[in-house]
Every structure is written in structure tokens, then in C-alpha cells.
Design goal:
The structure holds two protein chains of two kinds.
Chain A lengths: L8 H5 L8 H9 L3 H16 L19 E2 L17 E4 L6 E3 H14 L3 E4 L6 E4 L3 H13 L15 E2 L13 H11 L1 H5 L9 E4 L8 H4 L2 E7 L4 E2 L1 H10 L2 H5 L8 E3 L4 E3 L9 H5 L4 E2 L4 E7 L13 E7 L6 H17 L6 H8 L1 H8 L23 H5 L1
Chain B lengths: L19 H6 L3 E8 L2 E6 L4 E7 L4 E3 H15 L2 E4 L5 E5 L5 H10 L31 H16 L9 E4 L13 E6 L5 E2 L4 H4 L2 H6 L6 E6 L2 E6 L9 H5 L3 E2 L7 E6 L14 E8 L6 H17 L6 H8 L1 H8 L27
Parallel strand pairs in B: 7-8
Antiparallel strand pairs in B: 1-2, 2-3, 3-6, 5-6, 8-13, 9-12, 10-11, 13-14
Classes of the chains: A alpha+beta, B alpha+beta.
Chain lengths: 396, 357
């Protein structure tokens, strides 16, 4: 291929300033690959014309999978032949995003050989994203990835690549083993992950505590958020240490959302039965306070961005579940949801929207959960109740 | 190829990549401290210590940079490194003496150390004009320009609370922008342009009509062929139709742009998780550095930084002072577009006589 270098004065403006520059990154790759040269030229055109230059979709993939590759074609291949094809491959990240230098070099070797040399660490769902290659390189890239122990992630209407916080690997607040559960569910649902057969996408995210560092409550169809049932663990010596530098009354007590804490200048008292497990006091005094010992997770469901019917946060389904392998109760719950949503969900209807359409009460009946007040912020405030005729009346 | 590549092997098991100190203390960490911006010190129950040095990246990176990160990890961390959920890199070492030289090497490479505690961490963002087919704006360029302006807030911890900024280049929102302290969102503002000659070839009309949340798309015949029409007054430019049908384009150089949202959060600390709310309905696309957007974000950060109490996230601050005062203090104009008129709109009207004067 002709080694053309494009003039990019607008892109070059984005190399200035203290923050790391993606243009500099693309230029590094452009020393090695023509794809990177082409994408820089195309981006310059976008900055000039104030519009994107990628065409809509295109079905490409690897044998045996329906997801994991996003087809992408330029709308002006005559100007930038290097990026006529610029497909993305999603590679399932290791749980918690831990790597060794050797693993990173394996990935770089594969991508330098087959693609643009540009990647996202990481994509929004959590995958390693290889940005830009042509159709003929997809199978060889996939073969090399598998040979080194890597696999593709999800795309389209399938289980999307599950992701989690680093949990017990490096956090004292983890209420369950997020990385183990993430790996377990990823392996358990390989078929659903690689072969789109659902009404729309389904995302799992595991957060070890209610701080939710993976934004599961905003982004996951199933948000698995660590919590605890018993009393917050206290270290009185450490509390006394904090009291020397921290205004416990102002910084901790007055920020407690349920006013369940008292501080008389010497002793901290917590009414644990009124603690809502918000994490603020623990966040402020990590040496002195810790989640309790009876740990597990809450299951919330239904979060999504606006498309199609509006954004939703996940809402409570199971307030507390022990999280121990092989996670049978959790998998039973998930399978019950997949059964009804997979069967009855409309095209492009996320599970949260499905629940809105069929009604939460009806949905609970089908998946076999009892309605409990923990599931709601408040009971309905309208009288439009769909009472069901009881059986005796029907017989009359 | 002679043989079919095996499928469904799944990702590598994470245990292969964990440093020995993490394997040993898995689930046994006692507490952590932030001795200085960008450095975390985790102490295990048995006394082992792990230092994590957090480095910013542009998210979009070259393999050359990843190789450099691998080299640094070998030089200081026995080859161990991880990424965070906000696209930062964390170098993991048990040796305190490695921290200073590692930071020097990172800075010499042109990268920043920070993003911990009460700082602005990396801006989570989407692909934009680098790779996406439906963006109303670019992602990487705006993020770069905003973070250049706010880099000091990445490398220090002087804010009242954490500040989480996110950017999505269209309403599909690949990323949690709808629950961010400040969200930058690309928006289209004109009715889709229908390519009637392509439409019957590339789209299914019933699917297309069903994709519209406001039922603004109706099947019609155009020159004897199946196509659709759009009721302009019902279109809110969401782009759903374009997602299912490439013959309905919304991209427009002059009409597309950016809106700004504030006050969302995902953490449960103190207040419940919340959606971001509209602050600025429209700012123009002005590449390559989007000065209007940079100024708008900087203004909100500065007003909040000055006015918020310790630990108050943007949404908590606004809940305390009230929305009228948010608009007054930031000087942002309030318009009819700020008042919801989609589903359940009335829930966001003020339904009390409690006021501040």
C-alpha cells in the first residue's frame, strides 16, 4: 500500500497541553501501520467538516460466533483507502483488568501484525478493543488470540462481556469475590455471550460494595452489588486516632443519611438496624470502620441508557444473597429472567423496559419472586390498579 | 486455514495475572491510605503493603505505549499492572522505594499521575469521529481539551468531593454518562433525512416504524416503493431509527452539537444514585478544541468547588442550594428546554411551596 502521510493541522492542535493526547497515540501507531495514517487523515476531515465519516454497520465476524466484531467502513474510501475497512474486535478482558507484561506484549504482537496498532484500554463495557482492521485479517487475528489464550467478547443482542471491580484482589470493602463471580458467569454463559439470541443486549456488572466503582447500577441489566447484613466492624483505637485529625461530628455523623450514628467526642455508636449501608462513614475512616462479616450481594436489575424508551437505574430484586460458588441461586435467578425476557421480550427491548411494559408485579410472578417492600421507593400513588378476577368470581 | 479455530475458551483466568502479594492477601486487605495524589497504599491484615501508582491515559492508545507500560511494569513491579474502570493504569509494587522513580519515569513519558480521592479522574468516553457511525460530536478531542484545562484537578486532591465527568457522542451513551457529576453528551437536532431509494433495500419498514419512541415514523409509498415519513413535530432526534435503518441519517455539521448534564452519581455513599439533569441544552461543535464546551465544564467545576461543602458531590450540592441558585451561581441560562416534556414529565415539576428567596 502506498505510504501516504496526510497533513493534519487540526489534529495537531490536540497534541498540545498537559493531558495525554490520543492524537500522539495515533501518530505513534502511524509509524508502523497505514491504518493509523488513514484514520488520522479521516479524523482531520471530520474536524474540518464537523461530521463523522464512518458508514453504518456491516456484518462481519469470525466462524462460529455472532458477536465480538463490529463492522466498520469509511464513507470516503477513495480519499482514505487505508481505512476502507476499519473493523473493531472486542477481546474479553481478564476479570479486574489485571495483566502481566508478558500478556500485554502478546496482545501487542498480535495487533501489530494484524491491525492498526491502536486499541482502547478499555471499551465502555470492559473489553480490550482492537480498533481497526480489514475483513481478511479477522480470522487470523482470532486464531492468534485463541492460541495465546484470549477469546472475543460480546456484541449485538447477546450477553455482553461481564465486568467487575478489583474486589478482594485489592480492596478491603469487597463483600464478595467479584473477580471469581465475573469469571464464573463469563464461562457459564459463553454460548449466550458469543451467539446473539436475545431481544437485545444483556450486561452483567459486579461491584464489591455500594460504592459501585464499575457503575453497575447505571449500566448493567443485572447489577450485583456487594453488601452486608450484620454490624459495621469498628476499631475503637483507630477511631480515637482519626478523632485527632478529623472532625467526626461534622465529617461523618452529619453526613449519615439515616442519622444512625452518635459521637460524644469519645465513643462512636452506630444503630446498625437503621444503617442503610451507604458506605460514607467507612469511606471516610477506612482504618476504623469496615463492612460487617455476614457479607453477600444485592441483585438489582434493569439499568440502561436512554435508547429506546428512556434511561433507567437498576432497581432492587433480591436485597441479600450469599455469593458462594457455584452460585446456583444466582444462576437460577438469571435463567428465570432469560427464559421470560428471551421468550416475550420485543426486538430491541432491554429487560428493564420489558419489566416496565409487562408490569413489575407480573414479572415477579413469572420469575417466582415474592413482592416485598424492599423493591420499591414507595407504593403506587395512583388508583389505576389492574385487579385480577379471583377464581371463584370467574366461575360464576 | 486448515483447522477451525477453537471457540468459547473464554478469557484467561485472572489468577494468572495477579502479583504474589495479591494472591497471598486476597480478601485479607485491612485498609488503604492515599499518601499523595495518584498513590494508593493498601495494608493487609498480616502487615503486607501494596503500593499502586495511578497514571492517566487517553484510553485510545498505541501498542507502542502498551509496550512501554509493560516495560515500566517490569522495571518496577515484577511485570504487574492493571487498568481501572476509568481507563487509568495502576502500577502495582510492594516496594515503597520504587514509587518515586516510577512516577518520574511516567512523567518523563508525558503521562500524568493522579486521579485518586477528591480529584477529577479520567473522563470516561466513547469513540466519536474516530470510529463510530452515529456520533453527533467527537469524543476524544473534547475529553482532551477539557482535561488539558482541568489537569491540575487530576494531579491534586483539592476538590470538595470526587468529580466524575463522562462523555457520550450520541444518545446511545456507550458509558455511564447519564449518572455523572458532569456529563457531556452529543446531540442531533434535526429530523432524519430519508433516502427513499436506499430505504426499501436496506431497511424493514415495520421494524423501522416500531423503533420510534414517539411513533413519529409512518409507513408510506414513495414512487410506488415502500418507505416512511417522519412527523417532524414528534421527533426528538434520538437516532433510534438510524440505528435500525442506515437510510435515515441525522448527522449534520451545523445542527449537531453538545449538551451538558449535571448532578448524577452511581455511588450509594450518603445520597442515593441519581441521574444527571440538564444544565445546558446546546453548545456548538467547534473542533478541534471545543472552547465553548471546555469553558462551560470549567465554570461548573469552579462554582461547585467554591460553594460545595466537604464531601458534597455536584448533585448533593445542588440539592442543598436548590436549582434556581445553581442557575444563578453558574450564570447558566434557564430555558423551556430544561423542563421535561417526555414521559412522566410532571414528576420533575416543583410540587411544593417551599422556596428560598
Amino acid at each position: 500500500m502506498a505510504e501516504k502521510t496526510y497533513e493534519t493541522p487540526l489534529c495537531d492542535e490536540l497534541e498540545k497541553g498537559p493531558y495525554p493526547s490520543f492524537v500522539t497515540e495515533i501518530k505513534k501507531a502511524a509509524k508502523k501501520t497505514s491504518y493509523a495514517k488513514g484514520v488520522l487523515g479521516l479524523l482531520e476531515l471530520s474536524y474540518k467538516e464537523k461530521i463523522g465519516h464512518w458508514k453504518h454497520g456491516g456484518i462481519v465476524g469470525v466462524m462460529g460466533y455472532g458477536g465480538g466484531v463490529i463492522g466498520r467502513y469509511s464513507d470516503c474510501p477513495e480519499k482514505f483507502p487505508e481505512v476502507e475497512h476499519f473493523h473493531t474486535m472486542r477481546i474479553n478482558q481478564p476479570a479486574g483488568w489485571f495483566y502481566t507484561s508478558e500478556a500485554l506484549r502478546d496482545l501487542c504482537d498480535i495487533w501489530d501484525e494484524h491491525g492498526s496498532g491502536i486499541l482502547n484500554m478499555h471499551g465502555s463495557t470492559g473489553d480490550i478493543v482492537f480498533l481497526g482492521t480489514k475483513t481478511a485479517e479477522l480470522e487470523p487475528t482470532f486464531a492468534d488470540l485463541v492460541a495465546k489464550g484470549w477469546d472475543l467478547g460480546g456484541s449485538g443482542s447477546d450477553v455482553r462481556t461481564p465486568s467487575c471491580c478489583c474486589g478482594m484482589a485489592r480492596c478491603e470493602w469487597a463483600c464478595y469475590d467479584t473477580m471469581q463471580l465475573c469469571y464464573d458467569l463469563t464461562m457459564h454463559y459463553q454460548d449466550e455471550l458469543h451467539r446473539p439470541a436475545f431481544p437485545y443486549k444483556f450486561k452483567f456488572k459486579m461491584a464489591g460494595c455500594p460504592n459501585d466503582c464499575v457503575a453497575s447500577i447505571a449500566r448493567a441489566d443485572l447489577s450485583i452489588i456487594g453488601t452486608w447484613k450484620d454490624d459495621i466492624q469498628m476499631d475503637e483505637g483507630a477511631i480515637a486516632e482519626y478523632a485527632k485529625t478529623l472532625d467526626i461530628a461534622a465529617d461523618v455523623i452529619s453526613n449519615c443519611p439515616t442519622s444512625c450514628m452518635e459521637w460524644d467526642g469519645k465513643t462512636l455508636k452506630i444503630d446498625n438496624s437503621n444503617c442503610s449501608r451507604c458506605m460514607h462513614c467507612i469511606n471516610v475512616m477506612p482504618k476504623a470502620l469496615k463492612p460487617g462479616k455476614e457479607r453477600g450481594a444485592a441483585l438489582l436489575m434493569g439499568a440502561k441508557a436512554p435508547i429506546v424508551q428512556g434511561a433507567q437505574l437498576s432497581s432492587m430484586f433480591v436485597p441479600f444473597l450469599e455469593m458462594k460458588p457455584p452460585y446456583e441461586d444466582l444462576k437460577d435467578f438469571i435463567d428465570a429472567v432469560f427464559d421470560v425476557w428471551g421468550e416475550e421480550g420485543k426486538n430491541r427491548e432491554r429487560v428493564g423496559e420489558f419489566i416496565q411494559r409487562v408490569g413489575m408485579g407480573n414479572f415477579l410472578e413469572v420469575i417466582g419472586l415474592e413482592p416485598i417492600p424492599e423493591m420499591i421507593a414507595y407504593p403506587r400513588d395512583n388508583p389505576y390498579i389492574f385487579f385480577e378476577a379471583d377464581e371463584e368470581e370467574e366461575e360464576e | 486455514m486448515a483447522e477451525k479455530t477453537p471457540t468459547d475458551i473464554g478469557p484467561p483466568h485472572y489468577e494468572k495475572f495477579l502479583p504474589p502479594v495479591i494472591k497471598k492477601n486476597y480478601g485479607k486487605w485491612a485498609y488503604h491510605e492515599i499518601p499523595r495524589p495518584g498513590v494508593l497504599k493498601h495494608t493487609a491484615e498480616g502487615g503486607d503493603v501494596l503500593w499502586s501508582v495511578r497514571m492517566s491515559t487517553a484510553r485510545l492508545i498505541a501498542t507502542e505505549t502498551v509496550r512501554w507500560i509493560a516495560d515500566l511494569a517490569e522495571k518496577y513491579c515484577d511485570g504487574h499492572v492493571r487498568w481501572t474502570s476509568r481507563n487509568n493504569v495502576e502500577f502495582l509494587t510492594t516496594e515503597e522505594k520504587n514509587v518515586d522513580p516510577l512516577i518520574k519515569d511516567i512523567q518523563a513519558g508525558g503521562y500524568l499521575v493522579g486521579g485518586t480521592g477528591n480529584s477529577i479522574s479520567n473522563i470516561v468516553h466513547t469513540q466519536g469521529w474516530v470510529h463510530c457511525h452515529s456520533p453527533a460530536t467527537d469524543a476524544s478531542a473534547i475529553v482532551k481539551a477539557v482535561l488539558d484545562e482541568l489537569a491540575d484537578e487530576f494531579t491534586s486532591m483539592k476538590l470538595p468531593a470526587k468529580m466524575r465527568i463522562a462523555l457520550a457522542c450520541c444518545l446511545n451513551m456507550c458509558g455511564a454518562v447519564h449518572c455523572s457529576d458532569i456529563a457531556i453528551l452529543g446531540i442531533h437536532r434535526r429530523v432524519p433525512e430519508i433516502n427513499h431509494s436506499d430505504l426499501p433495500k436496506v431497511c424493514e419498514v415495520p421494524n423501522l416504524a416500531a423503533s420510534c419512541p414517539t411513533a413519529a415514523i409512518r409507513p408510506v409509498k414513495v414512487d410506488g416503493k415502500n418507505s416512511v415519513e417522519v412527523l417532524a413535530e414528534s421527533c426528538m432526534f434520538c437516532g433510534n431509527c438510524y440505528t435500525v435503518c442506515p437510510a435515515m441519517t441525522l448527522n449534520d455539521p451545523e445542527m449537531d452539537g453538545v449538551c451538558i448534564w449535571v448532578g448524577g452519581k452511581v455511588s450509594n455513599a450518603r445520597s442515593e444514585p441519581a441521574f444527571s439533569k440538564l444544565a445546558i441544552p446546546y453548545l456548538p461543535n467547534n473542533p478541534p478544541r471545543w472552547p465553548e464546551v471546555v469553558e462551560a465544564v470549567k465554570n461548573i467545576v469552579e462554582v461547585w468547588k467554591k460553594d460545595a461543602r466537604k464531601y458534597e458531590r455536584v448533585g448533593e450540592w445542588i440539592n442543598r442550594i436548590g436549582w434556581p441558585r445553581f442557575f444563578e451561581k453558574t450564570g447558566i441560562e434557564f430555558t423551556k428546554y430544561h423542563i421535561d416534556d417526555f414521559r412522566y414529565a410532571g414528576l420533575s415539576f416543583k410540587r411544593t411551596a417551599q422556596q428560598r428567596f
